Amino acid sequence: xxxxxxFLLASALLVTGxxxxxxxxxxxxxxxxxxxxxxAPIPGTATYVFVYEPRISGNPVAIALGAMPLxxxxxxxxxxxxxxxxxxxxxxxxxxxxxxxMRAFAATGDATVLTNAAESRGHQVIxxxxxxxxxxxxxxxxxxxxxNPCVSHASKLAPSPDWFIGFSEICTLDDAGSWLDExxxxxxxxxxxxxxxxEWVPTDQVPETDPPEPVAELDIEPFSPAGTPxxxxxxxxx
Length: 238
Fold this sequence. Notes:
Blueprint: H1 2-17, E1 45-54, E2 56-57, H2 60-64, E3 68-69, E4 75-76, E5 79-85, H3 100-108, H4 112-120, E6 124-129, H5 130-138, E7 141-145, E8 150-158, E9 163-171, E10 182-191, E11 216-217, E12 231-237
Parallel strand pairs: 2-3
Antiparallel strand pairs: 1-7, 1-12, 4-8, 5-6, 5-8, 8-9, 9-10, 10-11, 10-12
């Protein structure tokens, strides 16, 4: 009797073990969630079209359209520097002291040494004269690369001790490294901090500033109060 009872019990256990949660066909695992598509690569170049709005100018056409005129006898020197460069490599900055190349420019108005130095560093020199800047305004298109996405500009006011107009390190990439849809370049007048003088006279007629002072916004008519825009350029990604 004991043997038969044990045999029946063992048989029942075997039958139970062949079904239910304890056995049978293995459960099929759920399908893996597909990986999200990789983000599209950022284009290596960008083309911006821009609108130039002069606020203070020596150009008769701009003055006729409402720009405030420069003082009589004052204009921009023929040489200029319009440079595209990597972040943190601007040729000058407000609140900073001038490099040797920028000192030469502020003293003489000749940007050749400045633009040559930029080229040697692999920067993109867009224009070296105000005539070239003017030609750019006739075809208002700016082409930039990921290697040189920031733009700086300087053009000396002549005659003047060491005053110039421009902007420094306006960058066209956002924090994620993508091209911005719109960028505003505000051109302002600056005192380079290397020559003492408050009148419209050439650099060689005033003493040097000793020690040099940092670059600061110019506060003299028609650029008063300091920071008054000379021109506003609005660039839109095409």
